[in-house]
From TrEMBL:
[4Fe-4S] cluster binds at residues 57, 61, 64. It comes from Turneriella parva (strain ATCC BAA-1111 / DSM 21527 / NCTC 11395 / H) (Leptospira parva). Belongs to the radical SAM superfamily. Biotin synthase family. Its cofactor is [2Fe-2S] cluster; [4Fe-4S] cluster. This is Biotin synthase. Residues 42-265 form the Radical SAM core domain. It comes from the Bacteria. Binds 1 [2Fe-2S] cluster. The cluster is coordinated with 3 cysteines and 1 arginine.
Length: 347
């Protein structure tokens, strides 16, 4: 499918036409699929999340089970020991993960904890050769430099929605705070991972604006989450999302961020449903083994989805990884599933 034909950048107006259904789905999908394949071929990057701290957060993000006063029923626990986190990174590499993502709840790490995380990042890089993404809240310039010096590959800090809509979903920090964190890390040389949560009561125009802002910030990796109404959430105008609309959202983020990694993130199983395979024609990345406090498809199911759609998983070494090629050589989907099982609640 890859061609040498020039592809004109998508406009905001065209993106809005796609979201609002004025462009036939087959036409929009074909347009985005050509862009995806030109930049990423048939490769799909699998990310595995490790929730290294649960709950006890002072922020009031309405979509989150870990927010203050959420009464969501999750089991709060303090930061995992570095040895436990390292063991989970080893399991992620054995499972064929492209990147290991560590996530903590809270406003942001202390200076001391930043140094500890930096040492862990160095070890994972040196011993495992596995790319590391960290999500730990707000980061100032000095902490960004510490993490960069340790070899942090990516830092995740989602914008979640457009600036105009941000006050509807969170009041304990601002949209501007999030943008400044991304700018601090980018200036320190750390790659950016930042995305959105679809279904928080936003308008289609808000999603277009968020996609454009991520392009302005030159975000390399964009997770597109579909809102899961976890117990204790505080989103008053949550929307009912159809599989077609979710696919159109992914198309828009691909067209407005052509060379960025577009990741099908939380909620793909319940919202995209039978269109998950089609979504891989647009997105080149996804999560396996759950989303922080919500269970998702296990690794074996995710690999099968990728292979059934005609794609292959890409490992940290850049080599294809398939279930068939790894059968009988020590790879056990159930073993990996057990190793990567984190405290979760049902959605």
């Amino acid at each position: 499918m890859t061609t040498n034909r020039e592809i004109a950048p998508a406009t905001a107006a065209h993106a809005l036409d796609i979201l609002e259904g004025r462009v036939p789905l087959y036409a929009a999908l074909a347009e985005a699929a050509e862009v995806r394949e030109r930049h990423f071929g048939k490769a799909v990057r699998i990310h595995i999340l490790d929730n290294i701290q649960n709950g006890r957060c002072a922020e009031d993000c309405g979509y989150c089970a870990q927010r203050k006063d959420a009464n969501s029923g999750i089991e709060p626990y303090s930061l995992k020991a570095n040895e436990a986190i390292y063991a989970e990174a080893e399991a992620a590499k054995a499972a064929g993960a492209y990147r290991f993502c560590m996530v903590t709840a809270g406003t942001g790490p202390s200076a001391k904890r930043t140094e500890e995380l930096a040492e862990l990042i160095r070890r994972i890089n040196a011993d495992l050769g596995l790319r590391v993404c960290l999500s730990a809240g707000l980061i100032d310039k000095k902490k960004a430099e510490v993490l960069s010096a340790a070899g942090l590959d990516r830092y995740n800090h989602n914008l979640n929605t457009a600036e105009e809509h941000y006050g509807e979903i969170c009041t304990t920090h601002t949209y501007r705070d999030r943008v400044e964190t991304l700018e601090n890390l980018s200036n320190a040389g750390v790659g950016l991972c930042s995305g959105v949560i679809v279904g928080l009561g936003e308008k289609p125009q808000h999603l277009v604006e968020a996609a454009q802002e991520l392009a302005r910030l030159r975000v390399a990796s964009i997770p597109v989450n579909f809102f899961i109404p976890v117990p204790g959430h505080a989103i008053e105008n949550a929307q009912t999302l159809t599989p077609e609309y979710c696919l159109r959202v992914l198309i828009v983020f691909r067209l407005l961020n052509a060379a960025s990694e577009i990741r099908i993130a939380a909620g793909r199983e319940g919202h995209l449903r039978s269109l998950q395979g089609a979504a891989l024609m647009v997105a080149n990345s996804l999560f396996a083994s759950g989303y922080l406090n919500v269970q998702g498809s296990n690794l074996a199911e995710t690999l099968q989805l990728i292979e059934d759609a005609g794609y292959h998983a890409e490992t940290a070494a850049g080599e294809p990884f398939t279930l068939a090629a790894n059968a009988g050589v020590g790879y056990s989907p159930q073993r990996v599933k057990d190793l990567l099982k984190f405290p979760q609640v049902s959605s």
